[in-house]
Write a structure and sequence with these properties.
heterodimer; A: mainly alpha; B: Ribosomal Protein L30, Chain: A
């Protein structure tokens, strides 16, 4: 099984995990902003959303599970073919939520390029912004090194 | 996002059960969002539809530059399945009826 081990700074990443956990708590009962079901009938909407939420909760558990005792011991996390998809999806869900909540005041182009002066952001948006970039970095690492693009259907 | 933008067509139960082709074709349309990475969107298209890199990238660029891309056309049930899968991957997706058919 292909795997990559990444060493992170616990001091830098630990505060970001608070943002991830808070967002994950919200996303346990809320589908990500990518999901809109306005025009579905009630029965279909309930089934559709419940299925998406179940998958989302499972994905978030996998993402948070990366940051257990091993991580706090030496800063290491491991990606492999077992957890890659879930981490990618959970990171996308958290980033989308951060974009529409903690970072809604940040210019879209700046956010897309990542070219934002942290000091120019309101205090409350700084940690969510760094978390937003951190999760994008995890996604890039997985996509570049584990090549998870093999067809699933 | 799933939006059933076409008018609902009245069909008899027989039509639904024995002649699914009368339901028409449905387009799976992915809409742009300012969050998901380009590499992520390409990866999802390759994974979900089995596109090669070139085709997946073409659809990603279409989403990025035009705001939307039709990534699949076919029967409604399969279109819904694709839309659901794309939403699991947090890509904003709508279904539209292909009224030209």
């Amino acid at each position: 099984m292909k795997r990559i081990e990444v060493k992170l700074s616990v001091d830098v990443v630990a505060p970001l995990l608070d943002v991830v956990r808070e967002t994950a708590d919200t996303l346990r009962d809320t589908v990500s902003p990518a999901v809109r079901t306005d025009d579905m009938d009630l029965e279909m909407r309930e089934a559709w959303v419940e299925d998406l939420l179940a998958g989302q909760r499972s994905d978030l558990d996998v993402l948070l599970g990366l940051f257990g005792d091993e991580f706090f011991k030496d800063g290491s996390i491991v990606f492999d073919s077992e957890n890659a998809d879930a981490v990618l999806r959970a990171s996308a869900a958290v980033r989308l939520h951060l974009r529409s909540h903690g970072l809604q005041g940040v210019d879209e182009e700046q956010l897309e390029s990542g070219a934002v002066e942290i000091e120019s952001l309101p205090e409350a948006a700084r940690r969510p912004f760094v978390c937003y970039l951190f999760l994008a970095t995890l996604q890039e690492l997985i996509i570049q090194h584990l090549n998870p693009a093999s067809p699933e259907i | 996002m799933i939006l059933f933008e076409a008018k609902t067509q009245e069909q008899t139960q027989t039509d639904t059960l024995t002649e699914p082709k009368l339901e028409g074709l449905w387009k799976v349309v992915v809409l742009n969002d300012p969050v998901n990475l380009m590499s992520y969107v390409v990866m999802v298209f390759r994974k979900v539809f089995g596109f090669d890199e070139t085709r997946a990238r073409k659809h990603m660029m279409e989403v990025h530059e035009r705001g939307r891309s039709v990534v699949w056309v076919g029967q409604r049930e399969q279109a819904e399945a694709y839309a659901h899968t794309l939403q699991q991957w947090h890509l904003t997706t709508v279904l539209e009826s292909d009224e030209a058919h």
